[in-house]
Amino acid sequence: MEIPDASLILEARGLSLSYGARIAVEGVTLELRRGEVLGFLGPNGAGKSTTMRMLTGNLRPDSGTVSLCGIDLWKDPLKAKARLGYLPETPPLYRDMKVDDYLKFAMKLHRAMQDSLPDIKEKCGLQDAGSRLIGSLSKGYQQRVGIAQAILHNPDVIILDEPTSGLDPNQIREIRALIREIGNRCGVILSTHILSEVESLCDRVEILHHGKQVYKGSLEGSRHAVEVGFKHPPSIDELSSIHGISKVEALSDGLFILRHEEKQNPTEALVALAADKGWGLTRIAPSRGSLEAVFAELTREGS
Length: 303
Ligand code: ADP
Known about the structure:
This protein has helices at about 50-55, 75-80, 100-110, 115-125, 140-150, 170-185, 195-200, 220-225, 235-240, 265-275, 290-300; strands spanning about 10-20, 20-35, 35-40, 65-70, 70, 85, 155-160, 185-190, 205-210, 210-220, 225-230, 245-250, 255-260, 280-285. The chain is globular, with a radius of gyration of 22 Å. The strands form three sheets. It has a six-stranded mixed beta sheet with strand order 6-7-8-3-9-10, sandwiched between helices. Strands 2-1-4-5 form a four-stranded antiparallel beta sheet. The protein has a four-stranded antiparallel beta sheet with strand order 12-13-11-14. Helices cover about 30% and strands about 30% of the residues. It is an alpha/beta fold. Adenosine-5'-diphosphate (ADP) binds near residues 42, 44, 47 and 50.
């Protein structure tokens, strides 16, 4: 089948779903392109899992459409789902099976070529775990098996529901590296309520609150910024004139976020100028501020 826009691999329009009288998701619209990792962020109960279950065909929306590589998920579910890998919040693992047996079983279900098993295991760091019982693996390794079952049929779109939840910091780092690697080849949507996860992994973010999309944005800006504080703050104009700084945002109490181009970190120039002019530099650190501020503002209770 011809794909209408080769790089657009998932398109969801106006997804809504209620559980009885409770509206869980209302009018969610999103797009995913090849090579992108999209972070789906929101507080608990925001509707992330419900949306993902609609995107993967596990829940039928009350209204709205989903298409994968141009194939309508509800009109042609088998074909559309062949393009999709899904790791639900609770991974679909059989604890009494050995890793190899489970992955071979999952490959049969997906009609994937069994000879790609060593490749998949290598990709997911499972080379030495083939004969281990899944139930005896650490949570991090179980999550690797969960990701392996989601990618073994070489899907275009991979949907991961809170993939690092419950893992320790080392496991989190490893799973994030794996997701980033996968995301370079296909497209990934991952849900999380962890801001740093989105910042370290994702190209774009959508924030969901009470079932509605309240923010869509790129993360480029927030990656290249420093947060600074001064005892005797200069004016915004003075800060803006420093070489490399593209935008200045004033926070409170002499604190500022300074945005800069990727290769023009203004730290050195700023420190020298602050000393020269007696601004009394009290803080300078890479900024994680903007997404945090946006998230706090948009998902405040009552908003
Ligand atoms: P998130 O994944 O962002 O934590 P969910 O999609 O799980 O959010 O839930 C969205 C809303 O729908 C919540 O208010 C939740 O209580 C409700 N909900 C989720 N699943 C069910 C269900 N099976 N039956 C009734 N209400 C549900």
